[in-house]
Design goal:
Structural class: mainly beta
Low-confidence stretches: none
Order of helices and strands: EEEHEHEEEHEEEEE
Shape: elongated
Oligomer: single chain
Number of strands: 12
Strand content: 35-45%
Mean pLDDT: 89
Radius of gyration: 19 Å
Strand order of the largest sheet: 1-2-3-4-6-5
């Protein structure tokens, strides 16, 4: 819980849930008399600075009430790649940690391709995101992590050279992988021998 104060008087708060690498804003409120004073923006800025020091990468939230959407957008939040549950209120996210950006060209080394739906639906479609992977010398740790709000049932294809090593749902990419709404890959196991 983060409390916003003016002259030692509480004027607002942010209730947060942390699940590395993401933090969810569960509830945020600024007293109506102080809403035009940039209290939310200044508090959010301080929260982000603190989260960066703790090595978090992103914030997310559900717009409720729907009228709050414009306020969050003014603070830099954008739509999640795909609404996970269309019956829910709109989900927004703000990414602030350094992470690998998608590419439009396949690498000749290692690549992750990700679709925004399940494998049986995306069979003949091109991937939505392509990540060319670079590893720290002598390790399987990525120089920059892959960070994407995704559903664990979405399709992923891991390519080494020109051979697909895996083509499956994200949740099956490798054994110890886990994520909530946010996919975070900072290392990969060694690929099986490619012939």
């Amino acid at each position: 819980m983060v409390i916003a104060t003016i002259e030692n008087e509480a004027v607002g708060f942010f209730a947060l849930t942390k699940k590395y690498p993401a933090v969810t804003i569960d509830l945020a409120e600024i007293h109506p008399l102080f809403r035009k004073n940039n209290i939310a923006t200044r508090t959010l800025s301080a929260v982000i600075d603190d989260l960066k020091r703790q090595n978090f990468y992103t914030l997310d939230l559900m717009c409720a009430p729907a009228s709050s959407e414009n306020i969050w957008r003014k603070m830099g939040f954008t739509d999640m790649p795909k609404q996970m549950d269309p019956s829910e209120n709109k989900m927004l996210c703000l990414t602030f940690g350094l992470h690998l950006q998608p590419s439009i060209i396949l690498s000749e080394h290692e690549t992750l391709e990700i679709w925004d739906d399940e494998p049986h639906i995306t069979k003949d479609n091109p991937p939505k995101w392509v990540y060319n992977l670079s590893f720290k010398k002598g390790t399987r740790e990525l120089e920059e992590p892959v960070l994407l709000y995704a559903d664990y049932d979405w399709r992923v294809r891991w390519i080494v050279g020109n051979k697909a090593i895996k083509d499956c749902k994200l949740k099956y990419l490798y054994r110890d992988m886990e994520f909530g709404n946010c996919l975070f890959i900072d290392k990969l196991p060694a690929p099986p021998e490619v012939h």
